[in-house]
Write a structure and sequence with these properties.
The chain has one domain: Up-down Bundle (Methane Monooxygenase Hydroxylase, Chain G, domain 1), CATH 1.20.58.480. The chain starts with 24 loop residues before the first helix and ends in a 5-residue tail after the last helix. The chain has 280 residues and is mainly α. It is 57% helix and 0% strand. Helix 3 packs parallel to helix 6 and helix 4 runs parallel beside helix 11. The protein has 13 helices and no strands. It is globular and about 70 Å long.
């Protein structure tokens, strides 16, 4: 046998091969819990796809919340660089979430029908992490608290977020340091949905007209737009996937399904940053 035919032994290169009493890859990632967390309720082959797609989406959302919270804190402290990196990362997280729809769309209506009834009333509409992402960004609809009243710990997380300035509120306070904004914008009740302001639109437009002078605010605005771009694509892909698989049936959680999701496409997280483009 020539040296080229000799099976490679990574131990000879120093790779750790014995883990009795030592932390391994699986230990560090707690893979036993993760890989045994799939419990299909039917014998349908495609239910495993459905479960894993949603579980991995929730993991990505957990990371998105980790990054968004840190981005808000660092922006509040005036540290633009770290905040920009975190916002860029969140945009890429939503790129991953968008790619997940491509996998789910390999499931046909007939395949989904085989296990849909086993879902009961469960629905992605009830994802508290998704709701917390929306609240963090500024889309604060208090009616969306209701599905989480049965879990005091989750309900508390959501209500606590409603008492804090959203990421966009913090961005506007940062903008105010250069372009003074009305008191009504700066001291608004953070628990209610944000309403677009002509004064805010004019302030952002002034930043865009002179980016060289206001580069950090200009980059902040574009980081927010970049993220919302991916977020909108995620919502659109959600609508398309649902329509492709269940048509116009009601959602498993009781929503109107595609009709409800289409209404969500109209929600703007950072409205002035989109509207100002018409003014330039």
């Amino acid at each position: 046998m020539t040296p080229a035919d000799t099976p490679y032994n990574p131990a000879k290169d120093g790779a750790q091969m014995s883990f009795d009493g030592r932390m391994s890859y699986g230990d560090y990632l707690d893979l036993d819990k993760i890989l045994t967390a799939q419990h299909p309720k039917s014998d349908a082959h495609d239910e495993m796809l459905f479960i894993i797609q949603h579980q991995t989406s929730e993991l990505w959302m957990r990371l998105a919340l980790h990054e968004l919270g840190a981005a808000r804190d660092t922006l509040s402290d005036g540290r633009f660089g770290p905040a920009f990196k975190m916002l860029a990362r969140v945009a890429r997280i939503f790129e991953q979430l968008n790619n997940a729809w491509d996998v789910l769309r390999t499931m046909t209506p007939a395949e989904y029908t085989r296990f849909r009834e086993t879902l009961g009333q469960s629905s992605g509409f009830q994802s508290w992490q998704y709701r917390l992402i929306e609240f963090t960004l500024g889309n604060r609809n208090q009616a969306m608290l209701k599905p989480h009243e049965h879990r005091a710990d989750i309900y508390d997380k959501l209500t606590q977020e409603l008492s804090r300035p959203s990421l966009y509120d913090v961005a506007l306070r940062t903008l105010h340091g250069t372009m003074p904004l009305p008191e009504a914008v700066l001291k608004r009740d953070p628990s209610v949905p944000y309403e677009a302001s002509d004064e805010v639109r004019a302030a952002w437009a002034a930043i865009y007209r002179d980016p060289d002078t206001h580069w950090q605010l200009y980059e902040l605005a574009e980081k927010l737009v970049d993220f919302e771009d991916y977020f909108r694509r995620w919502r659109f892909n959600h609508v398309t996937t649902v329509e492709r698989i269940i048509g116009f049936k009601r959602g498993s959680g009781g929503t109107s399904g595609v009709a409800y999701l289409r209404r969500m496409l109209e929600v703007e997280l950072f409205p002035e940053l989109w509207h100002l483009r018409t003014d330039l």
